[in-house]
Q: What sequence folds into this?
């Protein structure tokens, strides 16, 4: 939420603008804010403050947000707040707790050990049996 604080009376009008850099200069967009939570641009007004909330911000919501407070014939604007929206972090491929992950890693280790030890042991015993047969033939 982007906050703005004012010492003006309660009868102020709060408007928000978004300023974006484009190839040929700046593009100023007047934001249509809602008083209902859950809307894209939600402006919550309190006694001496207003908060702009951008729900489900996306990369194209990046830009400078300027607030204008009008009290009768007098108006003031903020210097602006820069908002940069980065792409969201990807969700995990398999959403598991740490205990499950540790069990899988342990099982993989046991399978790997068996795949290395069992064939090697079989080869050693085959060689031993071949050597025993050779010695029996020679006797």
A:
């Amino acid at each position: 939420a982007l906050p703005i604080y004012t010492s003006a009376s309660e009868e102020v009008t709060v408007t928000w603008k978004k300023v974006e850099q484009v190839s040929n200069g700046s593009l100023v967009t007047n934001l249509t804010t809602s008083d209902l939570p859950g809307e894209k641009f939600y402006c919550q007004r309190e006694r001496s403050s207003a908060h702009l909330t951008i729900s489900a911000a996306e990369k194209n919501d990046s830009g400078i947000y300027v607030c204008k407070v009008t009290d009768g014939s007098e108006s003031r604007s903020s210097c602006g707040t820069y908002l940069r929206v980065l792409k969201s972090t990807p969700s995990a491929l398999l959403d598991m707790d740490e205990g499950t992950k540790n069990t899988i890693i342990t099982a993989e280790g046991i399978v790997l050990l068996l795949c290395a030890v069992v064939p090697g042991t079989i080869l050693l015993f085959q060689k031993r049996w071949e050597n025993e047969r050779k010695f029996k033939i020679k006797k």
Q: What stands out?
A: The chain has a mean pLDDT of 83. The beta strands are 2-5, 13-22, 25-30, 41-45, 49-54, 63-71, 74-77, 81-83.
